[in-house]
Design brief:
Aspartate Aminotransferase, domain 2; alpha/beta; Arc Repressor Mutant, subunit A; 17 strands; Aspartate Aminotransferase, domain 1; 7-stranded mixed sheet
Length: about 450
Amino acid sequence: MAESWATLGVDLHLEPAGSGGLRRGLTDALRDAVRTGRLAPGTRLPSSRALATDLGIARNTVAEAYADLVAEGWLTARQGSGTRVAERAVVPPSGPARHHRAPARPLHNLVPGTPDLAAFPRAEWARAARRALAAAPNDALGYGDPRGRPELRTALAGYLARARGVRADPENTVITAGFSGALRLLGPVLRARGVRTVAVEPYGLDLYRGLLENAGLATTALAYDELGTDPSPLDTEGAVLLTPAHQFPMGLPLHPDRRAAVVDWARRTGALVLEDDYDGEFRYDRQPVGALQGLDPDRVAYLGTASKSLAPGIRLGWMVLPPDLAEEVTAAKGHSDTVGVLEQLTLAEFLTSGAYDRQVRSARLRYRRRRDALAAAVADRAPGVRVTGIAAGLHAVLRLPPGTEPAVIQAAAWQGLALHGLSYYRHPESTAEHLDALVVGYGTPSDSAWAAALEALCRVLP
């Protein structure tokens, strides 16, 4: 039986054309593909036999076209390595020139939000991936449940109940593409429920406010005082977004009386609390603050992510939702999952094998040492600066003398130090007192870069 085009060689898209016959048309098409850079230098071409079968032409025609282009210097042909595109300068296609300059990378990066990516447990993750893939049923590679793989939802329910005090049911757990993916799902669902306004903390990420506003939801800023976020202004809002275990970026947990007050407000008004538990595992001086969701699973939607404990690039987050909301979010998500199945299966294996707990404990020790080094260095080099918000998390807030924040940020830029001031995170409508401060992500640098980043920071402090 003759071999078909589908079983031979490598695919190569060509459209021989022109009035000079097949050989000339094929030669011109190949030459043009090389000249414009569509076929990069070193690209291996199909054998003459395979390409002839693909194009439905005689093998001699392909061999002669190849020979012509070898003679012209466009291709090379060597025994044992086949026919390849020759190494030569490529002339880009004509058109208006575009220059995309990549932004200069800072020498040191202390912007919060990212863990030490060099400490990602590559070997452990690879072993978990192999075990998970070997054990996965064939149907795991299909489109699957829009809530996510049951293996991961079950593993997360067990872990979150044990480690974070979440009252989790796998049936009401939805896997998302990180925290942003969760908000992209929740925003339209809240809007469809009749919610028009979501209260947010006076300091936070404008990215999240933007996602809510893109769903047609207005945001209003809560108050802030020495006890942290003050939810007393909550009134007719349909939902509130909080970081109760460790307010971002100020670093205080939500006061116990205020935790109860938020839940009472939600029960009284029928509103929903969105709990962002972004780094709940990383508390250093005492037992981590439990999840707010444990007080009332019917009024609190719990949102978590592996972005701090592992890495944001794996794009894995989760929501533990009230049953009715879980149904609506699942329907809104569609008929297929939006997160890679292999990543889900790997994280499930990582959790059930104990590797996740080991990673968190190891990271907690590493970041605690950095926090202690930061506090000691600032006390020694800049006694007029006060380090706050350091009981938990991967960042600290450095309170500066009044009026100095802009100058310090400018000095940091001159030093090649990426750094954010507290004003970067302030809600534009916040009535909270203006504070001069730096938000220092001490978890961001690698171990090898940490000492130099800390030294650069100390040089710019007043």
